[in-house]
Design a protein that fits this description.
7-stranded mixed beta sheet; 4-stranded antiparallel beta sheet; alpha/beta; Aspartate Aminotransferase, domain 1; Aspartate Aminotransferase, domain 2; 17 strands; about 20% strand; about 40% helix
Length: about 400
């Protein structure tokens, strides 16, 4: 099979397909797929599970990959732990803190279920108050957050890039604000990683979570969290067992003190190796180059989509945007648009409520189409998309 090549790298997208749903799942470099295959052929061991050569080799590879991921974010003084999904990582984190009944969670209706459902689960368990930022409050984000923080220990739970409509947050500024006010910042970077430089050397939020298979272009099942040392010490993991335990008595267990404190069960080492390779690919291409490329695509998309009849972009005046665009149609349901795009030109998009019901309740449309680009998309991809949309939206 022939795959798409961009910036000198081959990606797991067949030639002839236009993939515009990277906000759901990114497409891996073929080299990362080959790294997984090599691991299974050459090592195929369970890390920290025995003293066998297989297990020792797996553990060594795991720790090398962990350090490479730290280096990618310039976050050597932090802890990196791996989970199957970011939803598990976030739920574990929220249930690993004390005094949750006294805390308040501040989030936004622009967030998707992956962030909001774990927060609601905490509310239903402890009675923790949740306060949602409205679309209007996103315009003056710092002031809105400042007004909602009531006490030390309150948690601000946001993504760096809203998956609903592509609004980009100044996460570093939010992090500084939270530190000044004694609040905690839990930040999801799933949609930003791989699209621009993220440097945590001077400003690391209390907790960072990310899916490995979205912007990072790793395989499924490779989510991770990054914690600063202070937060790491505060958290008593909800999920325990397996390699996270170093001793256990009848009614007592003692946790590891390393990054694997949060890693019960058998860790997906081949997936983590592939994720680490994908981050190397992104670094070698150059994240600034990728960001500039996607900015050009976004400018073309937004300008032309605004001129197509029967399409309304989900935009907030004055907001900064990343490589995600969502729109409603006055002519077709979103799923119909997505099917027409795929059936006519093999264009893959996302359609529906976008796993974001609170956001959808504020819209006049019951469903939306979402377009999300990555480095493997080209101006030709965008031109073909715009031609098809123009045709279907203007034809009687």
């Amino acid at each position: 099979m022939s795959y798409i090549t961009r910036f000198g790298e081959e990606f797991t997208i067949p030639e002839g397909k236009i993939y515009l749903d990277s906000a759901t799942m990114g497409k891996m470099p073929v080299s990362s797929l080959n790294k997984m295959i090599s691991y299974y052929k050459e090592i195929n061991g369970a890390a920290v599970r025995s003293m066998s050569q297989e297990a020792s080799a797996a553990t060594k590879v795991l720790e090398v990959s962990r350090n490479e991921i730290k280096n990618f974010f310039s976050s050597s003084e932090s802890q990196v732990s791996f989970f199957p999904t970011r939803e598990i990582a976030l739920t574990n984190a929220l249930f690993s803190l004390d005094r949750m009944k006294e805390r308040k969670i501040i989030s936004s209706i622009l967030e998707e279920h992956s962030l909001l459902a774990p927060a609601i689960r905490v509310h239903n368990t402890f009675g923790t108050k949740i306060n949602y930022l409205t679309i209007e409050e996103e315009i003056n984000l710092f002031q809105s957050i400042q007004e909602k923080i009531e006490r030390e220990g309150d948690i601000v739970l946001l993504s760096s890039l809203a998956v609903t409509n592509g609004v980009k947050r100044d996460w570093a500024g939010v992090s500084k604000l939270c530190k000044d006010m004694g609040a905690l910042l839990f930040l999801d970077i799933s949609q930003t990683i791989g699209h621009e430089i993220i440097d945590f050397s001077e400003n690391l939020p209390d907790l960072v979570i990310s899916s490995g298979c979205i912007g990072a272009l790793g395989p499924q099942g490779t989510a991770f969290q990054i914690t600063n040392p202070e937060m790491y010490e505060k958290m008593d993991p909800l999920l325990v067992g397996g390699g996270s335990i170093i001793a256990l008595e009848e009614y007592l267990y003692i946790l590891e003190k390393s990054d694997s404190k949060f890693e019960p069960g058998i860790i997906n080492v081949p997936g983590i190796v592939a994720l680490s390779n994908s981050l190397k690919v992104l670094s070698n291409i150059g994240l600034e180059k990728i960001q500039n490329h996607e900015k050009q695509l976004d400018e073309i998309l937004r300008k032309e989509l605004r001129n197509i009849p029967n399409i309304t972009l989900m935009e907030i005046e004055g907001a900064e945007y990343g490589p995600i665009i969502s729109f409603g149609s006055d002519k077709f349901e979103a799923h119909d648009v997505a099917m027409i795009l795929e059936n006519t030109k093999n264009i893959i998009s996302r359609s529906g409520a976008l796993c974001s019901h609170l956001f959808m309740y504020e819209q006049k449309y019951k469903d939306l189409v979402r377009i999300s680009t990555h480095l493997y998309n080209s101006e030709e991809d965008i031109r073909i998309l715009l031609e098809v949309l123009t045709e279907i939206m203007t034809t009687n």
